Amino acid sequence: MPGGASRTIRVVLAEDMHMVRGALVALLNLERDIEIVADVGTGDGILPAVLEHLPDVAVVDIDLPGVDGLTAAAQVHAKRPECRTLILTGLGRPGNLRRALEAQVSGFILKDAPPSQLADAIRRVVAGERVIDPQLALDAWSARDNPLTAREAEVLRMAADGAEAPDIAAQLYLTVGTVRNYLTMVVTKLGARNRVDAIRIAREQGWL
Which of 43, 99, 141, 149 could serve as a FRET partner for 52 with CA atoms 20 to 30 Å apart? Predict the structure, then answer.
């Protein structure tokens, strides 16, 4: 801890890959001032773990089954704002960084960073700093803005999850024709070849 404080930093860790989670728990527990008080494998388990164990920091993988990491981070901020959130990502998608900042996360770093860098990031966010991987910040700065409206993004997200136009129309109380028009507009806006290509582009940019 800064200033020579000896208080142990309590951490909840969320990572869906068992081997990766186990390795991170073991490595972080080697740090004298860091203790993993709980580890979970799904996004749905993050908020309950935070409310039960009252950690200083939640270290959250961005891609989790159930609730995604950014949504979980927003939930933590709403229910226990004193708990800092540090997002781990395997891919530096600029849109994800923007979403992370909107979710009031304290840090956003790459999963392939050295363990010492992760431990340092945990200490820094506890100290009140915002920690962002420099390359991710540069990519986000140079990235183009999301051209999709909220409704277009919602329709594309549902299509990406496998829903067909009639299903999307029923869930959003739209006509099938309107849904297809949204999808056509998305393909045009993104300069995509087709719907599948539009999904790929939007995911790479972190817009889904």
Answer: 99
Answer yes or no: are the C-beta atoms of 121 and 86 closer than 8 Å: yes
Identify whether the C-beta of residue 46 lies closer than 8 Å to the C-beta of residue 12: yes
Helix (H), strand (E) counts: the chain? 10, 6
Distance CA(191)–CA(41), nearest Å, equals 36
| pLDDT of amino acid 1 | 46
Neighbours of 191 (CB within 10 A): 10
Closest CA to 10 of 50, 51, 49, 56: 56
Nearest to 206 by CA among 102, 74, 134: 102
Task: Indicate the length of the chain as a whole number.
Answer: 208
| Cα separation, 53 vs 11, whole angstroms | 9
User: Is the Cβ–Cβ distance between 46 and 40 less than 8 Å?
Assistant: yes
Inter-residue contact 49 to 10 (CB < 8 Å): no
User: Tell me: the pLDDT tens digits for 18-66?
Assistant: 998 999 999 999 999 999 999 999 999 999 999 999 999 999 998 898 8
User: For the segment 124-142, what is each residue's pLDDT rounded down to a tens digit?
Assistant: 999 999 888 766 665 555 4
Weakest mean pLDDT among 142-156, 164-178, 193-207? 142-156
